[in-house]
Amino acid sequence: MNASTMLVVEDNPDHLELTLATLEQNEVPHHIVVARDGLEALDYLFCQGPYCDRNPDEQPELVLLDLGLPKINGLEVLRRMREDSRTFFVPVVMLTCANEQSDVILALKGGLNSYISKPLELEEFESRLEEIREYWRTSNLAPLGH
């Protein structure tokens, strides 16, 4: 059986490198897919464009989503995910800068599951990632009988 997929949506090369290095060091058991802007993320999620051959029934187990993306910003990606039954329940953790806190509040109201402020030191990022993973392991289980 293949490992679950995690979609990382990040346009900043330094932040992407830190994220991927942290995931690798923590041996996250996911296949990592990277999208570098909001449009590419939506193409992946909705099996469009270069991802038209992707199985739409295999959604990512988690999306790490940058807020300040080119083409389509993170808030719009989140809005479209929550409007579509195929992605409504996919957990989203937003990666934000300190000056984007008002947007984080909007995102939380729009269905965001959690957020991490960046840039982060490696140890801080690892700690936050583990908190999020533990949260999903213990609280995001499907109801019995479904």
Throw out a few tags for this protein.
146 residues; alpha/beta; Rossmann fold; 5-stranded parallel beta sheet; 5 helices; 5 strands; 40% helix; 19% strand
Task: Give a quick precis of the structure.
The chain has 146 residues and is of the alpha/beta class. The chain has helices spanning 13-25, 38-45, 74-83, 101-109, 122-139; strands at 4-9, 30-35, 62-66, 92-97, 114-118.
Structure description:
The C terminus is likely disordered. The chain has a single domain, classed as Rossmann fold (3-Layer(aba) Sandwich). 40% of the residues lie in helices and 19% in strands. By secondary structure, the chain is α/β, with parallel strands linked by helices. It has a five-stranded parallel sheet, with helices on both faces.
Secondary-structure topology with pairs:
Elements lengths: L3 E6 L3 H13 L4 E6 L2 H8 L16 E5 L7 H10 L8 E6 L3 H9 L4 E5 L3 H18 L7
Parallel strand pairs: 1-2, 1-3, 3-4, 4-5
Number of strands: 5
DSSP strand content: 15-25%
Please give the order of strands in the largest beta sheet. Answer: 2-1-3-4-5
- What is the CATH topology assignment? Rossmann fold
Distance, first to last CA:
22 Å
State the oligomer. Answer: single chain
CATH homology group: Response regulator
User: In CATH terms, what is the architecture?
Assistant: 3-Layer(aba) Sandwich
* Biggest sheet descriptor: 5 strands, parallel
- In the predicted model, the low-confidence regions spanning at least 5 consecutive residues are 142-146
Radius of gyration: 15 Å
> How many alpha or pi helices?
5
Please bin the fraction of helical residues: 25-40%
